[in-house]
């Protein structure tokens, strides 16, 4: 689990480089947990070379965690629209991150994670 506020602060302090670690770590954790998804290395490569796809992929995979349990997806690839073209309204990426990271944290909490 990652604190949304701390992650946003790290993103700002590292001038965006924390996002590369975030994409790698979250995708790797989800792949290890579920056995499905693109994994950390591919997520990192995509974030570096095709960064605009990363918000869509992450939200899609987080939603997939819920879907595999038979629950309604709180986020999906469409949530990525908060990031792109949401960036035009400045707060779009923040809304995307709060929604996606919040859904991921809630999922881990439901699996017994502390934080």
Describe the structure.
- By secondary structure, the chain is an all-alpha fold.
- The protein has one domain.
- The chain contains five helices and no strands.
- Helix 2 runs antiparallel to helix 3 (39-49) and helix 2 packs parallel to helix 4 (54-68).
- It is globular and about 35 Å long.
Tags for this model:
single chain; 115 residues; mainly alpha; 63% helix; globular
Measured by DSSP, the beta-strand proportion falls in under 5%
Kindly report how far apart the N and C termini lie: 6 Å
Give a count of the beta strands, DSSP E runs of length 2 or more.
Answer: 0
Largest sheet: none
Briefly note the structural class of the backbone: mainly alpha
The radius of gyration computed from the alpha-carbon positions, rounded to a whole number of angstroms, is 13 Å
Q: Provide the domain count.
A: 1
Low-confidence stretches: none
Shape: globular
Please count the helical segments: 5
Mean pLDDT: 96
User: Helical content, roughly?
Assistant: 55-70%
Task: Tell me the series of helices and strands, N- to C-terminal.
Answer: HHHHH
Tell me the layout of helices and strands.
Layout: H1 4-13, H2 18-34, H3 39-49, H4 54-68, H5 92-110
Helix pairs in contact: 2-3, 2-4, 4-5
Quick synopsis:
This protein is mainly alpha-helical and 115 residues long.
